[in-house]
Amino acid sequence: MESYSLNSGSMTVTERETKQQEAKVKLTAAAECITRSSLGIEHIFRELGQVYEAFLSSNDGKLKSSVKTKLKFRPTLLPDVVANLILQGHSFEIVNGDDNHVPLTWVSDVLNKLSEIIGTQKKLFVVSVLGIQSSGKSTLLNAMFGINFPVSSGRCTRGVFLQVIPIKQELINQIGYDFLFLLDTEGLRAPELSGSLSYKRDNELATFIVGLADLALINIKGENHSEVQDILQITIIAFMRMRMTLKKPKCIFVHQNVGDIQAKTNLMIARKNLIDTLNEMTLCAARQENKELEFSQFCDVIEFNPEEDVLYFPGIFEGEPPMTSISSGYVEKAQELREKILISCQNKRFQNLKEWRRKLSEIWNSVLKENFVFSYRNILEVNARVELDSALCGWHSRLIQEMTSVKSEYINRLYNVEYDSLETTLQEIINELFAEVTERKSGSDEIINKFFIQHEKKAIFEQWRDNTEQFFITRKEKEVT
User: Fold this and answer.
1) pTM of the predicted protein model
2) E strands along 132-178, which residues?
């Protein structure tokens, strides 16, 4: 790989910045190449799923017969094979992490076959984990349930993975369900993604995962929950907009790397501020959706008790390398959380696998149909965008109305012009019309500038200012044309 001497004294500042930018591009490309070169069992499952869906979608009988002969088995048996592998402890990819897609036909048929194997009346309890990248989500599930989700720094998990844990017979009568379904998700706010693309992907993923779960663990690195708080706001408004009845999920906040034994007492005000903000945002979203009577606080959408459902974990390691050991405090907290999960699900109605499979399809289809709220950071941005669009519609309507009136006057003027002076008059009208459009647009520009400068939400509006101005420039060109 080409090397760069970025500290060379002979380089100008511009040349040095150019070299740095080139190095960043090459580094990003190399990282992407390494990622695409990796191979795991999820990639094999993904290929099997594509073979299966392609086989089902084909109407060519000869092609199907040829495929069966070349593969030495019937592709329709693939869901049965994968379902048995899931029961043996392999994780199963629900959401394709490369393109943020759920192959519904493949996933539904695998879960349907899994239901047939374990029994259609078996009950299950679904636990999902959600959090910022590298906050220790997979590590937490591994520590609590003795499983082996892959862990590492950076963007380790991509997509959503399902792990099935059968419950011992002696515990089933106590807790009321036969299987524990664990959903491990990729980290949110990944540095590899940025801007509205990151918001859309993260918000879709969070809504999908929280909606699927009976209990969602909101994993937070440290004491700051601002990023997760923003994502939960979008999840709240997405649930309100879904045209389906969702069983209200429960959530527990888990703060990682908070070693102070007095953390629960010392951070009481922070917890109160969190729930106050979520309540305020819930009411704000309910007003926008005209559902104030149905949703007035956060716990109307997601079950949450700020006094009981917030836990503080110390760091998982203690000591300095190479003498690092697992923290006993982390293990104790993991045990406490596992017991809390078991207690929280008592005296509840559990769903069977067929019901959960149907729920998965309905939620994902609802997520795909929602084409507005997922592109924004939080409810404040959503409301600001709605307000800006409303103002933009008003400005545009007034401009069109005024220009329609002006054009009517000029058309009437043309009708009354004699043929000999038609060409001269037409050119005059074009020039006057151009001046009129320019004047009207200048007036609109002045109104827009005043709106963006003086409005109380100007800090949020600023990101859309260029697009708004470009819209009116385009309208001017269209009117002149």
Assistant:
1) 0.79
2) 159-166
